[in-house]
Amino acid sequence: MVDTYLLRLTDTLIEKRKAQISASGFRSMTNSNHMCAILKDGVPISYGTNVYATNGCVTEHAEAQALRRLCERMGRNAKKIKIDILVVRTNGSNSKPCNRCLNYMDGLTGRFNINNIYYTDQQEDTGLRCVKFSKLLNEEERHICAYDRNIVRRYHGNPADSLRSKSPQFINSIHQNQNNQVRCA
Question: Domain span at residue 62?
Answer without folding.
Answer: 4-140
